[in-house]
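User: What would this chain look like folded?
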Amino acid sequence: MVICRSTKRNLILSLSKDELAGRVNCPHANEKPDVVPMNSFPNHPFWDFSLRVYGGDGVAPACLRLQEKHGVDVNVLLHCCWLAVSGRGALEREQVVDLNEGVADWHAEIVRGLRAVRKRLKEPVGGENRELALSLRQRVQKLEIDSEHIEQLMLAATTDKIPTTSASSDAHEAANANVAAYLGAIGAAPDAEDQAAITTVVSAATNNAPPASDNKVQPENSTKDQAMIGLVKRYFAGVDDEDFASVSATLAENCIFTVETHGVRLQGHAEIEGMLTRLWGNHAAVRHQDFVFVPAPGDGRIAVSFAVVNTHHDGSVTHKSNCNFFEFADGRFTRVAVYMAGENTLNAA
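Assistant: Here's the prediction, encoded as structure tokens.
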């Protein structure tokens, strides 16, 4: 999107130089636009923390439940946890209210606006070219993710102004206190199932959950290996939730996806989305579980074996055992290679 300087706005998203040259059509077209490339977000540990936590077991569905039932802003929810684990401890309720209000307009008007468009484009609107509409939806998904990244940087800027405390504190207890203050500020009254969802998120954020049997890792992992594991979990959570926005957030723009056992090769988000859309359409539910992670230390690669449970529309169930190999660079997967037992469910067309 290109915006003339005369509009007094300085955020231009996701166009190449050639696209800018071809699409600018305003009295100021010859002026150099103010461009913020979407691959040049400033680094911040809060974003890395959020990716790791969201990829934890059960975290994505827990966040979705709180979002849909109580209107929780997941970015603020994770920020409440980040405050605790980064040494800021438990804030006063007024501080949490101020943090939420600082991003409320952006979240309501931009993040939720883009989310609503993305969800609406999943189904026909009426009379449109579906191929073009789905291509548009893919671009909206990217903008939605970028808008959430911007919101997280807004929150991070406020966090950086809050000093860490030298006093010892329980991060788990502080995170619960911050989350409770936030939920109270938005008028949410969580029931028992909501409390279980909150516990899932806070435990993942503070590393307080006991090791699960399907979280085996061999051998000992570096920080980079843990980041890859978190990204793998987020990828599969998106697949199981039929949420390509979450899946695409884990994949590089030109990610190569292959099913080595069946001669399938795809490249880029559009082709991968088409493959997953067919998978979801052919099944009532798809679930991945019993993960075993084997990172290649310091090499940006990880092998993952897992079980697949595919539920068909007639209620029958197919069990499969697969192994994926992921290559990782700059926070996303550049290549996914699938070795699949039995019939191929990831068809190219």
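The mean pLDDT is 80. If you want, I can go into more detail on any region.
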